[in-house]
Amino acid sequence: MKIRTLAAGLLVGVLALTACGKQGSPADEAGLPGGGTQLPTYTLAQNVDVPGSATFARINSKGGLTIGVKDDQPGLGQKDPTTGKYTGFDIEIAKLVAAGLGYDESKIAYKTVDSGARETAIANGDVDYYVGTYTINDKRKQQVSFAGPYFQAGQDLLVRTDDNSITGPDTLKGKKVCSVTGSTPIQRVRDQGLTEPANIVEFQKYSQCVDKLATRDVDAVTTDDAILKGYAAQDNSFKVVGKPFSQEPYGIGLSKDDSALRNKIDDILQTALDDGTWKKIYDATLGGSGSPATKPIIQRY
Ligand code: GLU
């Protein structure tokens, strides 16, 4: 009980904090109502060398980076259709890593790559690395390598605010559930039989699922809580059920053979976690959607 009370107290604290600063923030640019803190500036590393990294050699020969990201995930990776600018937590992590490799934002070309196309884009060298809610798991590790994790999410459900019939994964039978091709959440819905196969609706992008939720063509969208909270923060006709039922550690995807670059990126992330930069990024982006900041522990994959 005590632990529960403490957790509830912490949650109230977090909500109160996120409710504070509201105006004119980078998080507003990312389409989230909270935030209110400034993004950090990243120190541009000088004379960087990553011995043995084929990807870094390719980056240097191009004189810039191509980074794979998402473009429809508010607070994480979102592209403004008019300005073409990408914003969010993942985008900032992408920039932080680029700065640690000696490249400022003007040298970054973002490339939108949806969930089902990530492994191929990395393996083909279409992107130098990928930052987009990309869960580290053994299956993917057969094709790509991961630095990180730089964030910990969990699978959850987005439903219409007026729907009280869906309260968790065990209430999905007979409901139409939407998720994205090649994602861990759709795989889990299938593996665990959370709804009937005929009730699983699949798209390339989560925003397509959210559109179908609005038009009542589906009853729930399932993916990581961090993604769903971004959609709920933008539209109060949706709510997140709030009972995460998996662990989704986010990694930076890169070429399977490039352990030199992976170690370098791990070091960049570790420094940002230690010196407060990670927390500043979080507060100015995802923090606006009300998810508490839990610092990840960098592993050597
Ligand atoms: N993190 C999960 C995954 O990597 C879901 C989010 C996504 O599709 O990017 O599959």
Task: Tell me about this structure.
- Strand 3 (77-79) and strand 4 (86-87) form a beta hairpin.
- The strands form four sheets. A five-stranded mixed beta sheet has the order 10-9-11-8-12, with helices on both faces. The chain has a three-stranded parallel beta sheet with strand order 5-1-6. A three-stranded antiparallel beta sheet has the order 2-3-4.
- It is an alpha/beta fold and 301 residues long.
- Mean pLDDT is 89; it is low at 1-31.
- It contains eleven helices and 13 strands.
- Bound molecules: glutamic acid.
- Glutamic acid binds at residues 115, 132-135, 180, 183-185, 223-224, 248.
Question: What is shown here, in short?
Answer:
The protein is of the alpha/beta class.
How would you summarize the topology of this molecule?
Elements: H1 2-19, H2 26-29, H3 54-62, E1 65-69, E2 72-73, E3 77-79, E4 86-87, H4 89-100, E5 108-112, H5 118-123, E6 129-130, H6 138-141, E7 144-153, E8 155-160, E9 177-180, H7 184-191, E10 200-203, H8 206-214, E11 220-224, H9 225-234, E12 238-240, E13 248-255, H10 259-274, H11 277-284
Parallel strand pairs: 1-5, 1-6, 9-10, 9-11
Antiparallel strand pairs: 2-3, 3-4, 7-13, 8-11, 8-12
Helix pairs in contact: 4-10
Bound molecules: glutamic acid (GLU).
| End-to-end gap | 37 Å
Strand-residue proportion: 15-25%
Q: What quaternary form is this?
A: single chain
SS-based class: alpha/beta
Low-confidence stretches: 1-31
SS field, number of helical segments: 11
- Rounded mean pLDDT score: 89
Principal-axes geometry comes out as globular
| SSE sequence, one letter per element | HHHEEEEHEHEHEEEHEHEHEEHH
Helix content class = 25-40%
**Sheet with most strands:** 5 strands, mixed
Give the neighbour order of strands across the main sheet: 10-9-11-8-12
